[in-house]
Amino acid sequence: MKNLRKYREIWLLAAIAVLIGLISTRFPGFADPANLRQVFNDTSILMILALGQMVVILTRSIDLSMASNLCFTGMVVAMLNAAHPAIPIPVLIVIALLVGLVLGAINGLLVWRLNIPSIVVTLGTLTIYRGATFVVSGGAWVNADQMSPDFINFQRAAFLGLPVLSWIALLVIALFFVVMTRTQIGRSIYAIGVNPTASVYAGIDVGRTKFIVFCISGMIGGLAGYLWISRYVIASVEVANGYELNIIAACVIGGISIAGGIGSVGGAVLGALFLGIISNALPVINISPFWQMAISGSAIILAVVLNARGERRQGRIILRKAEAA
Amino acid sequence: AYAENVKIALVVKSLGNGFFDAANKGAEEAAKELGDVEVIYTGPTKATAEAQIEVINSLIAQKVNAIAVSANDADALVPVLKKAMERGITVISWDSGVAKEGRQLHLNPSDTGLIGETIIKLAADYLPEGGDVAILSASSTATNQNAWIEAAKKVLPEKFPKIKLVATVYGDDDSAKSTDEAKGLLKSYPNLKAIIAPTTVGVVAAAQVVTDANLIGKVNVTGLALPSEFKKFIDNGASQAVALWNPIDLGYSAIYLAHDLAVKKEEAKPGATLSIGRVGKVTLDDTNSAAMAPPFQFDKTNIEKFSKIY
Amino acid sequence: MTDAPHPRHIPDRLDKPLSSAIFSWEALLVVIAVLIFTVNSFASPYFLDPWSLSDLTFNFTEKALIALAMALLIISGEIDLSVAAIVALASTMMGIAVQAGAGTPVLVAIGIVVGLGCGAFNGLLVTRLGLPSIVVTIGTMSLFRGIAFIILGDQAYKGYPESFAFFGQGYVWWVFSFELSLFLVAALIYWFVLHRTSFGRRVFAIGNNPVACQFSGVRVDRIKFILFCLTGLMSGIASVLITSRLGSTRPSIAQGYELEAITMVVLGGVSILGGAGSILGVVLAAFIMGLVTFGLGLLNVPGIVMSIFIGLLLIIVIALPIVWRRLREGSFA
Amino acid sequence: MDTTAQHKVETERPLSGPAQPATPRLTLSGISKSFPGVRALHNVSLSLYPGQVTALIGENGAGKSTLVKIMTGIYQPDAGEISIDGEATTLHSAHAAFGHGITAIHQETVLFDDLSVAENIFLGHAPRTRFGTIDWRTMRKNAREVLETMRAGHIDADARLKDLGIANKHLVAVARAMSIDARIVIMDEPTAALSMKEIEELFLLIEFLKSEGKAVLFISHKFDEIYRIADRYTVFRDGEMVGEGLLKDAGQNEIVRMMVGRNVDHIFPQREPKIGAPVLSVSGLSHPTEFDDIGFELRKGEILGFYGLVGAGRSEVMQAISGITRTSRGTITLDGKPIAPKSAADSIEAGIVYVPEERGKQGVVIGMPIFQNVSLPSLMHTSKSGVLRLAEEFALARSYTERLDLRASSLSQDVGTLSGGNQQKVVIAKWLATAPKVIILDEPTKGIDIGSKAAVHGFMAELVAQGLSVIMVSSELPEILGMSDRVVVMREGRIAAVHDNKGLDAETLVRTAAGIAA
Ligand SMILES: Nc1ncnc2c1ncn2[C@@H]1O[C@H](COP(=O)(O)OP(=O)(O)OP(=O)(O)O)[C@@H](O)[C@H]1O
Ligand SMILES: Nc1ncnc2c1ncn2[C@@H]1O[C@H](COP(=O)(O)OP(=O)(O)OP(=O)(O)O)[C@@H](O)[C@H]1O
Ligand SMILES: [Mg+2]
Ligand SMILES: [Mg+2]
Questions:
Q1: Can you tell me where the transmembrane regions are (chain A) (predicted)?
Q2: Residue of minimum CA distance from atom 2 in ligand 1
Q3: What tens digit of pLDDT does each residue of C60-73 get?
Q4: Do B232 and A35 touch (CB under 8 A)?
Q5: Could you give the count of Cα atoms lying within 13 Å of C203 in the half-sphere of its Cβ?
Q6: Dist. CA B249–CA B279, nearest whole Å
Q7: Closest approach of chain C CAs to the CA of B148, in angstroms?
Q8: Do A320 and D289 touch (CB under 8 A)?
Q9: CA D492 to centroid of ligand 2, rounded, Å
Q10: Predicted ipTM?
Q11: How does DSSP classify residue C277?
């Protein structure tokens, strides 16, 4: 069992390889490195978001407001860019991170200080943040024409053969990997998910850690906001509507346990890739787009069934221990 | 004769869409001309029938005089609009129509067949040798888009025999989904010469995808686009030309017609001719529908000018 | 010698201070409802009209019917995010039946049976395979609606029989629509089941500690399965109503209803963690949400701005008792 | 695995330091703590001395665990002062207590199932690399070292905690305490889940801690343990401190009097067993992984003891008989009729009830009032065609809880606010209320104070006198010897022996349980 858990990422990788193989039989070019690079780039935003959601889910919480945060922050930076095209992009990214941080911190404070379950808090802020987007924009869209060329092209610039967007994703993945495996806060996040009571006893400030986790997911939402808007070159109130569930689905497929404490950076990334490949492949292999929803739904159910299999406790096996002794 | 203003609600598919904001400009213009009209510009934020019904319910409660609606669903709005008519409210539809029994008249932005032909022609004009084209539509349930695509398919064999329509995909008027679908088209059809997007959201997404993929000059993006949103892609060459009717005129006419029916008690019946201020006159066909001007084409020569207007 | 231990008398219940009744959740909701009602009637001259008020109920009755069953499900510690997708699938199946010439009774039966079937499917996955319901229903949410899309594609079904229109558009008496009457009756039944029967008691117990319940001879899986079926059933009924009200079916019908139904349940004071809540609270919450959206609608406030109010209301109403208690104890951290 | 090795060095060291060391390491004075409606602690004091073990004694609900939580920074006292090495401090968080070298093994095991052993030991104070990141390699090495010094080297530092047995988990908890170089070690009923062998190991460890000069607080309801290991005692009653001193100066009776406020002589009830025909017979009962070929008979009016080391599989067998876990083979006959319960509901209906040992997880429904807990398995009797009848529920709850001398302010109180022992009484009341034929009690007096223990034992005697049959699973020898008519001994998932309890001695039982030939 230890093995299955240890190699969950490898299983997922194998599933992805099989998926790519299957797609290639119908569309030979799919497995080309160039195409795969593009699929990776197309999935970058989802991967980043899934990582942000992962840290929240690991603490037995959930952030339903990520997509709304993305929408709000994206609108804010798009409007800033439209009004002041001279603001350099790195500054805009910092602003996006900060705006996202504020929204995440609001979630975090409510969870931490008032002890309201995160699903309730973020169900509320899900609608509030999207509504706030309408309020700040007056309902108007910001379209490609209003955005500066830098704003649009920053993430598209190629650097060592990969677009900047892909590099940002790789950077975020590396950052999360280090934080989750090598730092006190990363381990505390796991500990809280595994056993909150024990965490209190171990001297971890559970409330504050949850606050931090929501700040992280908020910043990720903000970053994704800029990336999303500059990628799809339109900022509107409807941006990424309902996308929160895709993010959670990526986490679930990646083996992150909704009950907290179990999951890895690799899993979240692969889960996002899996969904990314499906949405990338369906149009090219001529499966009617109407099938897409049912297919990803089935994939989620399948993934959770398989993960549960791997997680299932095998009893204490008194007899076998007795024989071994 | 009216002590207070005539309240006419301009109900749109969704708020924030530049096309409808432009239509509202026209509506306000009409209101000013008519003098006694108060326009209530409203609609849901999410383009669904249910949300539109809630909006219409509150308009009924406010006892507005007329409702002019661009419908998210031709059939689902019928019951609530019938209720409105029963309570003495004038109901017309414009842009995206409601089934006949749910409104007194429908104002088409243009002739459906003409739009279908135009979107193909926009692609064909720049493909003298012919070639593969694909359509990127809005949501699969959008009535008007579906009608145009039908019409386009009908004219293809006789009028544009060299153009081959290889696929029709749906971007749901969602920029992310439209982008994915446009990308998929480029991948699956390496010989694709043009993407036709009869939707203002999809056409921008497709043009951006073509720009990103460095296919400017190889794949032409065309369809229905709002000049102010699309200027960039005419400028950079991702698109040679697009078309659209004038949303300002559309909103203007909708208010005029609603006002005529509500106040002047004009009767909407087949064959009737109604005048709509500066736009002229329309004649109702046997489904009580009227069509406005043919779509107007934008290209390098005139986009600058129109992008300042709508 | 062992002194005989005197059995101490334990009273049934301690007299509760009046303040605890005044500060109960339902009381808070009543106050809020009255407040909103008053504000609305001042803000718009059109509000206090029986027909307006009747129209207002159409904004929430379908979701509220789902919320009744959802309340029980959430109290038992589970959740169903697929309800809106069930509505869509059931509506699609009714559409197919209409195409085949089915009459009203058959249509209603199909809507209900499909809803029940979808609920049972969720229930089986959750109870048989022991999967977390939030994840299962995120999956079935895509699956059910996905099937509706596969069947319908870009089509719509219409041509429902005249008599079918009664469910979503008809009135039972004066301004009392069929939808509203059905909701009130259903609320009464759910109230009785949850608060007055042993089944309801077990639902609460399961939400608090499913393992101890299993050891105590409560058939936990069976009850959870029934609750999923009930939620499916109510979604099926809601599907009949909404299909009848719209007179047509599209695969994108009822989008986003799941979150609104859950918001109603949570606003009604049901603990999202399970184990606590009341039907009265849910009913009040449904009316409050209806009043807010309708009141703002009369002022032509866009729906998305209304949703800010709902979101704020949700957080404030839940935070209020906590803040109040902390302030009183002076222990605001 | 060699866990039974003796460790001469430690045991040969002189026990305990000077009789009255100069300064206490930790002093609590005037501590009070109330929860809504409950005064848990009122003006209590306690001192812990380096190199000494202080036993904290008190009935269930006396406030012992509450005090532990105050000492570890989890709860804040309403009033009172804490000083460490003579210096007043506040312990505003668990982290702060940690910083002062205070560490606790809590009443409930509180560790991280899904993390590795090494991480469980070092979570929160892991060694760092020079970049400030966690140094996993050093952490593993240090973990192995700590485990070595505790003579627990057989525990793999890389193993997931959930793959360890309960005793090893306890050792990990202790290792965690050792790893921070704690100066004050608190153990809240650490022996409740341990077998005799493991208790011995734990005692060696406590001796080791003493020799290292740590101050130890030891909480237990078992007097033999207290007298063996502790130097000093402090007694609480109803949240107040009623006595303290050196154990060698105080007799058990004296302490019990302080604790209960009256005399209690725990003599097992004298019974005249009237054993009848077999009621329950089990044969060939097997489970794929947990137990094999279990067969025994339970007769009317009999108390059948089940003895074994912790982890022998007794609980699993009982859960199988009551339909909670599935078996692969075997038959169960009740009153001559074969039954095959598929759930606890089936077995309760048939007349077999199982009172589980894990009170918090399997027994009480926290968040619900006492009376609803008691009536939960009997709802079909207290309701009429599914409709609840509250008056009957209250009557049922009252009759059983009062007989067990439950301490509660009202029957509508949330069970979660009761002390551990009182919760256990609710649990027992709950299953008795179903009026069963056969009642299986799994560790019925685990965590129960001496007065209530007598009540439970008396009650068991009463039950069998009325013609019920009782299976009592227990790891406590005196209880097994004092109460059972016959004793089944289990070892490693199989029945090792069945003894008649006439002239049965502890030694024989322990030997069969451990598999050591006489
Ligand atoms: N979180 C809480 N909320 C309310 N009351 C509590 C809480 N924790 C403890 N109590 C009450 O405080 C009193 C002391 O409980 P505590 O757990 O300290 O007892 P204890 O001495 O450890 O008993 P036991 O031997 O049964 O473990 C009890 O009356 C208990 O009901
Ligand atoms: N590996 C383990 N992980 C967690 N808890 C365990 C483990 N082994 C035993 N326990 C716990 O220790 C306690 C006693 O052990 P358990 O019930 O498994 O042994 P048993 O032989 O079946 O029963 P008994 O202790 O009554 O003999 C229970 O609370 C059980 O949950
Ligand atoms: Mg205790
Ligand atoms: Mg046991």
A1: 41-59, 66-83, 89-112, 119-142, 154-178, 185-204, 210-233, 245-278, 290-308
A2: D417
A3: 999 999 999 999 99
A4: no
A5: 31
A6: 7
A7: 14
A8: yes
A9: 12
A10: 0.87
A11: -
